[in-house]
Amino acid sequence: MHISDSSYKAAISFFEWIDPSIEREVITWKKGMPIELNKIYKHVDSYHYPVAIWSDFENMSKVRMDRILKRIDLMSHEFFLYHNDKRYRIGWKVSNTIKAV
Which of 15, 16, 27, 60 has the most CB atoms within 10 Å of its CB? Predict the structure, then answer.
């Protein structure tokens, strides 16, 4: 399973909605690579299909976070949001760690 082209494009548009100044070019992440703010990253499988897409942002207001959480069903893959101090990582991945019942 991988992220389809339409979901991939929807995620990029979503990240642009969060921060219009984000760089549109998607970077293929490799283990050990540092993650920079306001850049879009993807992780690919052995066939080079995207299996995760994410971006890091800073200083999100409560209003913005509420708006983001209302749009997490943008694609059928697992949404994730990590927070560390003033930095937020937002994205989707295909390997579901939360199983549907």
Answer: 15
